[in-house]
Amino acid sequence: MTSRSIRLARNAGKVILFKNERADFLPILVRITGTTFTMSVSALIGYWRGHKQRLSKYLNYLLGILPAETRNTVVGLAFDEAQRVANQTSVAPM
What we know:
- The structure is a single chain.
- By secondary structure, the protein is an all-alpha fold.
- It has one domain (12-91).
- 85% of the residues lie in helices and 0% in strands.
- 0% of the residues are buried.
């Protein structure tokens, strides 16, 4: 067997082996689109949750390093301010 006949035999095997696998781009596009959508939704949910929890964790850290009396004063002031704003919005005409 010559090297040319070996090459032809290899190519013939490849043609038989991969004959049914044509370059269909629609299944590839659907898979890429689905994967991109899934990863984007997961990333957005993670960003949203992290952004939402960041302020809470930072405030918890800040209040944790304050002395108890100062912490209670800050929490009391924040509670009074929230109550005042809530009362103004519930009484305000629409």
